[in-house]
């Protein structure tokens, strides 16, 4: 595969794709950052089984009677380059895209423009050339009329598909989030819902308020890593009560990673695959759920190393099924804050099922009573009562 690295884009995104022929001639729809798949072909072949095939959520179907070639459009995250990949049988060809310039993919003509700029109609000779290629198929009036009705029907189905596609709905939701959309991921789900993945509780609350105030009439749900971990843990406690696991990670919400204990599980490879599929079914927005075996010794070792690095006094208590680190002593406010920040950070990585932390505070009975003068130190316990910790 050859991919041009030439930078061809000078206008800011997002971008709009316009169809210049086919039964959807004139239709426009948005291009989101990343990969967008276009399935081009005959509608009757696509629906021969009586139902729409299971194609990726970030896809569009364009009905075309002849000369259809599937292709992908890749938009960089910084919106500085757009690459078109023709997915021909047996090989793939890639080329950079010029804005407001007709692009031919097989028999399909498209045009890409920035959303903020008007459409620049293509040159008449370009359209004329394209029309001449199609003209011979419609010489006979009766055949042309029948084909017209047939294409009109396909066009209606295709248009409804595009207008109600998950990507179109995701673009609407993306627009509703406005300038704050970079803090979220909009994920089309297999259950026809849209999921907005937030990074923390504050963003979760903000997104839910936006949906409530924005009169968004589609099914949408805001999720975050902590809430999903609680939901999945409740299910696991019911159906896998003996399962020794750490937590679910959402660094990439479309591909969550589930951490299992290596030492405390004896699941076969087949059983792990079944668990992965069940977890995927619980998360309609996930394409897959990877299960990773983690070492208990590493989990406890990272906790102990962190406590030492923070210079926090602690004791370790090993027990069946886990380890407890007790942070104890007369800690001041700074030490307590440091301990809580470390514990929160650890739980975000490993969860709290195997390694747990407890804080036992002890009052400093000498606090506020110590005085130092010269080389002698003493504590005033009460009027007329003095305590000298070192011998006179």
From TrEMBL:
Cellular component, GO, one term: membrane
UniProtKB keywords: Membrane, Transmembrane, Transmembrane helix
InterPro entries reported in the protein's UniProt record: T3SS_PrgH/EprH, T3SS_PrgH/EprH-like
Gene3D superfamilies from the UniProt entry: 2.60.200.20, 3.30.300.170, 3.30.70.1770, 3.30.70.1780
Keyword Methyltransferase: no
Residues spanning the membrane: 142-163
Any Pfam family: PrgH
Keyword Transmembrane helix: yes
UniProt name for this protein: Type III secretion system inner membrane ring protein PrgH
